[in-house]
Amino acid sequence: MRRSPLFFATLSAVSLSACDGLLAEHAAGYDPRIECDDGECQCAAGFADCDQDPEDGCEVDLTTDASSCGSCGHDCGGGQCAQGECAEATIYASGSFLQGTFAVTAGHIYVTDDEYALIRIRLDGSEPSQATDVFGNGRDVVARGDSIFYSYCENLGAPCEPNFGVKQWILESPMEGPLTHQDLYSTGVTEPFTLPGVTSKYVYARRRDSGALFRISRGDKSVTQLASFAWPTVHGDRTYWLSAAGLFLATDDAEAPVQLLSGGELPPPGHGLLALAGDEESVYYLSNEDTTVDVWELRLSDGIRRKVQGLPGPAASAAIVPMIVEDQHLYVALTASHQAGLWRIRREAPDSEPPRLLATIGAPTTLQIAGDWIYWTTSTIGYGSSPTGSVLHRLAKPID
């Protein structure tokens, strides 16, 4: 039966239910989003029926829709969608310099800068940022339970350095409500502290310049030095650190740390990078080779040590490389390399998938992952290559 052009003009948004045996060929011809074969219709590649309503057909273009990028419901969080992949989005820019790590919680990001010790930013932008009642030069932020822990120096206009006689503090603020604070620990006049992490019982602090690692009891505030120089990472109630003596693990329920590897089993001096990540199953660290940055895994169940992958390198000697481990992947923000950027490595059967470059991000100062999002900060550079501000970025995790 012959149909008039007016009839087919009404199929500008062809419904899937209209694509039966007689109309199949014509429907596909008038709506490229639908493919029909022997009277059976489906969405063409790159399109999807995300609202599950057959009457409006394949209404979403998965290659460009920022709220359904690559698959239905995969939101780019403010970034653009191109060819089915999300681009990064800027969620906070500051004329001040964001000093160290930040913490991501449900609905908020907590950062420090060179003016306020702590700033709370609403992720959806529904309310202005709020600052703590402490003025000073902030360093690091860690979220644990219902509290935010952060380090700062009471610089009062002076640089945050030991020779200027400024006090260093570690403070705790409630996660909800006004950002009032209570003093957790004061180091007196000494070099600045960074905060690698907080467990149920302890706050771990590292002196920025000397690299000495300390453990502070959240109960009686007692302080124990664990190493004269170490590079730590905290996962839950487990803390790992690298030092010249080897790789160590401390847990909240053990009196003394356990040595996992000796110094001789680690990369030689000059080849090791300041990068460490671990969970209950494995610990990962990096070595700097002639043409690659090699990723190593120590499996805790059997003590087997193996090279997982090689990333393009080399990196600068003693470079700080942010690295985070998750259930299925390891994320590495490689800097000072000819292929600098954010890389993802599959943990199980890593040879089945080459390392994937997710974003070219230059030199991030820190990296965090929360839920379906990857966050990092970069510095804006002004005259004389000096930082003039900072930008906080967010990228949706790939769906595969």
Brief overview:
This protein is mainly beta and 400 residues long. The protein contains two helices and 34 strands.
Q: What features would you describe in this structure?
A:
This protein is mainly beta and 400 residues long. Among the domains are: 5-61, no CATH class; 97-234, 6 Propeller (Neuraminidase), CATH 2.120.10.30. The chain is 3% helix and 46% strand. It is built from two helices and 34 strands. The chain has helices at residues 5-9, 24-30, and strands at residues 34-37, 40-43, 47-48, 60-61, 81-82, 85-86, 89-94, 103-105, 108-111, 119-122, 130-131, 137-144, 147-153, 167-174, 182-189, 193-198, 202-207, 213-217, 223-227, 231-235, 238-243, 246-251, 258-262, 272-278, 282-288, 292-299, 305-312, 323-325, 329-334, 341-346, 356-359, 366-370, 373-381, 387-396. The strands form ten sheets. A four-stranded antiparallel beta sheet has the order 7-34-33-32, with no helix packed on it. It has a four-stranded antiparallel beta sheet with strand order 8-9-10-11, with no helix packed on it. A four-stranded antiparallel beta sheet has the order 12-13-14-15, with no helix packed on it. The chain is globular, with a radius of gyration of 26 Å. 37% of the residues are buried. Mean pLDDT is 80; it is low at 1-14 and 20-26.
